[in-house]
Amino acid sequence: MISLIDLLYKNEDLEDNLLLELITHLDADTAPYLFEKALEKKSIFYKDTVYMRGLIEFTNYCKQNCNYCGIRGKNTTVDRYRLSKEAILNCCEEGYKLGYRTFVLQGGEDPFFTDEVLVDLIQTIKESYPDCAITLSVGERSYESYALLKQAGTDRYLLRHETATKSLYESLHPNMSFENRRNCLFTLKELGYQVGAGFMVGLPNQTPTDLVADLRFIKELEPEMIGIGPYIPHDETPLKGSKGGTVEETLVMVALARLLLPKALLPSTTAMGTLDPKGREKALKAGANVVMPNLSPTDVREKYELYKDKICTGDEAAHCRQCIEGRIKSAGFRVDMGRGDHASIHIPEEASSVQIKL
Ligand code: SAH
Predict the structure, then answer these.
(1) Ligand 1 contact via 109 beta carbon (within 6 Å)
(2) Is 232 in the pocket of ligand 1 (CB under 6 A)?
(3) Distance (Å, rounded) from C-alpha 355 to C-alpha 335?
(4) Which numbered atom of ligand 1 lies nearest the CA of 198?
(5) Which ranges carry the Radical SAM core domain (predicted)?
(6) Pocket test for ligand 1, best of 307, 309, 311 (most atoms within 8 A of CB)
(7) 202 lines ligand 1 (CB under 6 A)
(8) Which tens digit of pLDDT belongs to each residue from 47-85?
């Protein structure tokens, strides 16, 4: 195991059969070495920095029916909400005051948010906060739509590929196309977005071979960001009662992603914190370098329930900001409130949030 980890560290790649061997044979004795090497690799590009993003969950309406997701359209028990433009701008204002310089706008695939509505929203946020990066995460849209949103000022787009195995993807996503999801990711890249792909760990019927396929896909796509989180069952979905992923197996995937794509921005996800009070700290120590505290108004937090027992649903934005900062520091890292672009991107000084020295 140790020599395989060293080889991966050195080459930043490993043949699929060796990745499979790692995934299936790592244990409590050898995994810590993998995490150590992943952290070492991360430090080369990002030192001890952890970037903060302000997350705004602005609509839980969704026309899709992903079998794992709590806000799937067919879940009639969800109390649906969509934030007004004013409410979203208020979140940004509060976030800006708290120091955030990236806003992540995430939601279900809500037909209310047409290109026109989203373009207006993005332009207004950009005019008010030109020094901030905007990340959108609103699912699959057309080439034209992605182009318009980019033109309006969107910097980044998160669209997890969810799983790189066609049969597994299709079994989880009724009426969605595996090819289209991948095409969306390639389109977003082509349009110049900083792109976030990613996948869930511990999905029903997912095998170690599927996870190798996920790693191979991200190695090929080379996204700037990779969101990896454990699948957590939700009672109001067709997958109710399934087992779900563990923190340990997710940590292994985070660390492997770091070693395969050393410069990637890797979030330590809320789902990790949900499974284990120290889950997010553990992810940071296994090579993650981004956290996304919630900026959504407290009265809608509980309604954006993708999975069971999601944490922090009652907390004010300022509380989340402080809580996560404390966790980052206690894990031995330094908070960076800047835009936090990918290591390969040079942002002109005046557009970035360089700290002014007095
Ligand atoms: N509509 C957007 C945002 C989806 S929610 C899109 O299509 O990209 C963001 C992510 O939450 C999803 O991509 C999925 O990977 C994750 N997610 C959804 N349900 C989940 C669950 N039950 N457990 C863990 N993660 C889940």
Answers:
(1) yes
(2) yes
(3) 13
(4) 15
(5) 48-263
(6) 307
(7) no
(8) 999 999 999 999 999 999 999 999 999 999 999 999 999
Q: 358: number of CA atoms within 13 Å, CB side?
A: 0
Domains of the chain: 48-245+293-324+331-343 (3.20.20.70)
Q: Of ligand 1's atoms, which has the minimum distance to the CA of residue 232? A: 23
The full length of the chain comes to 358
| Atom 25 (ligand 1) nearest CA | 231
Q: What is the largest CA-CA distance in the chain?
A: 58
Average pLDDT in the chain: 95
Calculate how far, in angstroms, residue 156's C-alpha sits from the geometric centre of ligand 1.
17
Within 8 A by CB and 6+ apart from 43, the residues are: none
Name the residue at shortest CA distance from atom 13 of ligand 1. 160
pLDDT per residue as tens digits for the range 204-234: 999 999 999 999 999 999 999 999 999 999 9
